[in-house]
Amino acid sequence: MGETIKVGIADVKFVSPPDKITTIGLGSCVGVALYDKVTKQAGLIHIMLPDSTKIRNNENKLKFADTGMDYLVAEMKKRGSLISNLRAKMAGGAMIFNFSTKNDLGSIGDQNAEAVRKKLIQHGIKLVSEDCGKNCGRTVIFDPQTFDYEIVTAGKQKHII
Amino acid sequence: MSEKKTALSDQVVNALAELGHIGAGNAATSLSVMLSDKLEVTPPAVELYGFDELTQKIGGPEATVVGILSAFEGDLDAMILFVVGLEDAGKLVRSVMHDETADWHTEMGISAIKEIGNIMIGSYVASMESLTGKKFRYTPPQLCVDMAGAILDIPCIHISKVRDEVLLVDSKFTDGEKELGGYVMVFSDGHSYDRLLRDLGVGVE
Fold first, then answer.
1. What's the pLDDT score for residue B5?
2. Contacts of B192 in chain A (CB under 8 A)
3. Each residue's pLDDT tens digit, A37-78
4. What mean pLDDT do residues A123-129 have?
5. Does A136 participate in catalysis according to the annotation?
6. What CATH number does the domain located at B10-198 have?
7. Which residue of A60, A108, A139 is in closest CB contact with B164?
8. In chain A, positions 61-90, which contact chain B (CB-CB < 8 Å)?
9. Are A27 and B147 inside 8 Å of each other by CB?
């Protein structure tokens, strides 16, 4: 039996079978699993914001879709993955509270997901599946053996993408 | 990657504790009227938490909680969140409705818990106003029941644009026997936060 490695907020971790990798309670944040379909190594990142260039407090690269995805891809390459073997799955980016008046916070989930999609296109990595938007929190668990990305919502409803 | 911690001076912590204490005291008075029962409030603990620590503090990121969130408008760029676990939400609803069988998960229960959140947030803002002599406008509080991690996302994202830690004012209410849990969290960008503290007469390095 493998372990399940936890990824915190604005954090990234890497895993190989039989271990799994999880991040808990995604709201507007997104969890992107990047995996190598040949070597079966995988990385999971928990992203908070879309664009590091618009924020002063941007020392933690892992907080942002742009710098975070660059880091994740570079790290997978460092660990021996070929770009052509990398695939991605993504979940999160919900709208938990609806603050239409508070500048862009209401749509931050959508912006996060969109920024990740753009970054993946830029790196030439296929987004295999996603479960984004809506108004529910999600816990995600990625299994690098089967490439299953399990999504659990409040009330323990589960599905796999 | 580890989060950097900013030390707050005793002076600042004391000012924020005072603010929290007055806010919670006001809320206890308002709730006492609703409950027609005397409520007491414990001195609040004021501490800075990293995002992951914060979700642990309220029962772990996957615990289902009730969150009531308001955003300040205008001068102060900040958010205020009242969060309470499901068990405590049930206790509060039973006390407010004087019905030992009442459940928060009904239309009446949700309405009662939302009213409690409104009172908490309103009282907190009122105490900020009386201490600073300023007026603060805020959006109507919104209620959401979901995983703690998801509830905290919007305010954490908001604050993370400026700092990677959140100020938690932990206020507890008791009605003599039962402890009624609940947290008030204030999220602010550094700029507004410093300005508010200056208004309170506290120097910030």
1. 47
2. none
3. 999 999 999 999 999 998 877 889 999 999 999 999 999 999
4. 97
5. no
6. 3.40.1550.10
7. A60
8. 61-63
9. yes
- b/e A109-145 (16+ beta carbons within 10 angstroms → b): bbbbbbbbbebbeebebeeeebbbeeebbbbbbbbbe
Q: Indicate if ipTM > 0.95.
A: no
pLDDT of residue B9: 66
Nearest to A137 among B150, B160, B164 (CB): B150
| Cross-sheet strand order for the sheet of A30-36 | A12-15, A42-47, A30-36, A86-92, A126-132
Token pair in block for residue B132: 């600073």
pLDDT-derived band at A137, boundaries 50, 70, 90:
very high
Cβ burial of A58 (10 Å; 0-12, 13-18, 19+) is middle
Q: Please tell me which residue, B176 or B103, carries the higher pLDDT value.
A: B103
One-letter amino acid at A136 equals C
Are B157 and A11 an interchain contact pair (Cβ–Cβ within 8 Å)? no
DSSP B78-124: EEEEEEEEHHHHHHHHHHHHT-TT--SSSHHHHHHHHHHHHHHHHHH
How far is residue A23's CA from residue A9's CA, in Å, rounded to a whole number?
A: 8
Do A8 and B158 make contact, defined as CB atoms within 8 angstroms?
no
pLDDT recorded at residue B205: 43
- Which of A12, A29, A69, A76 is the catalytic position? A29
Q: Which of B4, B52, B158 sits opposite A9 (nearest CB)?
A: B52
Q: Distance from B71 to chain A by nearest Cα, in Å?
A: 7
Which residues partner with B166 through β-bridges?
A: B49
**How distant is the Cα of B37 from the closest Cα of chain A, in angstroms?**
33
Q: Write down all domains in chain A, each with its CATH number in brackets.
A: 4-160 (3.30.1330.200)
- Indicate whether this model's pTM tops 0.95: no
Residue A29 confidence (pLDDT) above 80:
yes
